[in-house]
Amino acid sequence: MAEKSFQELYPEETQHCYGCGVLNERGHRIQSFWDGDVSICQFDPEPHHMALPGYVYGGLIASLIDCHGTGTAAAAAHRAEGREMGTDPPLRFVTGSLHVDYLKPTPLGVTLTLRGRAKEIRGRVVTVEVTLSAEAIQTAKGEVVAVRMPEDWVRNLMAPKGT
Amino acid sequence: MAEKSFQELYPEETQHCYGCGVLNERGHRIQSFWDGDVSICQFDPEPHHMALPGYVYGGLIASLIDCHGTGTAAAAAHRAEGREMGTDPPLRFVTGSLHVDYLKPTPLGVTLTLRGRAKEIRGRVVTVEVTLSAEAIQTAKGEVVAVRMPEDWVRNLMAPKGT
């Protein structure tokens, strides 16, 4: 059986995000996986995701870094507790802050690779560094300060409807 | 005649951006205008632009701040030269860095208002502060460091095709 992505292991009620929700049919549906201590996500922008002809627009790059960052935070938080994603209780993160440095124009038409690393886990806050490369060239880097979602949000989302 | 937005006054060859390009039929096509010294943009997210049910996903917020920020940079740079956007030479900006602080969840289903202010113009670099509000509540703030596009990029994009 193929390894599941971080996003496939989110509680189903939190799988609607435009950037990373498996259940968002209109969204980017990014998929992130561990490769040792580094999280990897590959993404192929569509032709209309352009800034200028031939280049990826910055908002997509910010979105990919954001969602790959919160996914990496969730995966790293589970690891820090010595258990797999998908076990209870689910640890799900939202973005507290996002910083992106655009180092070079990112060419459109090639697969982008994001690499994340949990730099610090402190209480409910995980700081994740992310790089973005187009083929072998790093074109952007970012930092996501991810904050664990309050338990009652997750519980409320997961509550049976109508109760 | 209605006032033109910053984005409608960009050189046509630079109107393809997914976030702000008037010519990108699949994109967000944001429109920014001056209100005194503050730039204003209003945007209605679509239902699929969600993070969790009922809330706007962070990548869209980053995209709006990014494109409204570079638009404000262009408008402020023209103003600093004492001339209107749409006069030659066009001053067009790309993003050097983007920072977003997510202060509160942003509700889906209401009009978002972005307000920008050029904090500093130094040579080719304009730093723009942006706030984002949902109805009267500020839910995010950001800073865009916008860098003026090299003249040869703009010239190359504007060159007649086939030359």
Architecture blueprint of SSEs:
The structure is a homodimer of 163-residue chains.
Chain A: E1 32-35, E2 38-43, H1 58-80, E3 93-102, E4 112-122, E5 125-134, E6 137-148, H2 151-158
Antiparallel strand pairs in A: 1-2, 2-4, 3-6, 4-5, 5-6
Provide structural commentary.
The structure is a homodimer of 163-residue chains. With 163 residues, chain A is of the alpha+beta class. Chain A has a single domain, classed as Roll (Thiol Ester Dehydrase, Chain A), CATH 3.10.129. Chain A has two helices and six strands; from the N terminus they run ββαββββα. A six-stranded antiparallel β-sheet of chain A has the order 1-2-4-5-6-3, with helices on one face. The longest helix of chain A has 23 residues, at 58-80. Chain A is globular, with a radius of gyration of 16 Å. The model of chain A has no long low-confidence stretch (mean pLDDT 94). The interface between A and B is large, with 38 and 38 residues.
The largest sheet of chain A is: 6 strands, antiparallel
**Proportion of residues in β-strands of chain A:** 25-35%
Which class do the helix and strand fractions of chain A yield? alpha+beta
CATH top level of chain A?
Alpha Beta
* CATH topology-level fold name of chain A: Thiol Ester Dehydrase, Chain A
Short description:
2 copies of one chain form a homodimer. Chain A is of the alpha+beta class and 163 residues long.
